[in-house]
Every structure is written in C-alpha cells, then in structure tokens.
Amino acid sequence: MTTTEVDLKEIQLHEGDTGSADVQIARLTARILHLTEHLNHHGKDHSSRRGLITLVAQRRKLLKYLQRTDEERYKKLLVALNLRK
Questions:
Q1: In this predicted model, what pLDDT tens digit does every residue of 22-31 receive, in sequence order?
Q2: Residue 11, Cβ neighbours under 10 Å: how many?
Q3: More exposed terminus of the chain, fewer Cβ within 10 Å: N or C?
C-alpha cells in the first residue's frame, strides 16, 4: 500500500492538509510498507532495519495521540489504512 493506493484526499482534514496526524500516519505507513518490502529482499541491511523501527515508533506515537484526542478519526484511519490495533 502506497500513498497512491490510499488517496490522501480521503484522509486530509482540509484542502492542502499535510501536517495533521492523519496525513502523517498515512505517509509513515507508506514508508513503512516500502521499507518492509525492501528488507524482504535485503535481509542484511541493518541501517534500513533501524530506520524502519524508528518509523514504526513514530507512527505508534502519532496513533496514540490521535486515539487520545479524537477517537472517531482514529477508528476511521485504522480502517482506511488497514491497520490493526
């Protein structure tokens, strides 16, 4: 799933929204999926693995923030990005 698969216009809160937690989580998810695919082919690329772990932690923090502040947007985003929680 890339950012083109999930239309960011569905996730954006308003036109040109690039900074909301929703959009940041969607973009992080796309990068995480890309790095996961990369690591399936290049298993010894430890620097990319460390970057992946950093991205996952950052996404987890943003998800916790969104869950704490707006439960409805949080649930909608989990469904849109096909994340499990």
A1: 999 999 999 9
A2: 21
A3: C
* Length of the chain as a residue count: 85
Over its C-alpha atoms, the chain yields an Rg (Å, rounded) of 13
pLDDT score at 46: 97
The structure tokens listed for 9 are 């216009």
Q: Are 7 and 51 in contact (CB under 8 A)?
A: no
pTM: 0.90
Please say whether the beta carbons of 77 and 66 come within 8 A: yes
User: Which residue has 């995480």 as its token pair?
Assistant: 32
CA proximity to 58, closest of 21, 85, 7:
21
Residue ranges, the chain, pLDDT below 50: 4
Place domain 8-81 in its CATH homologous superfamily: S15/NS1, RNA-binding (1.10.287.10)
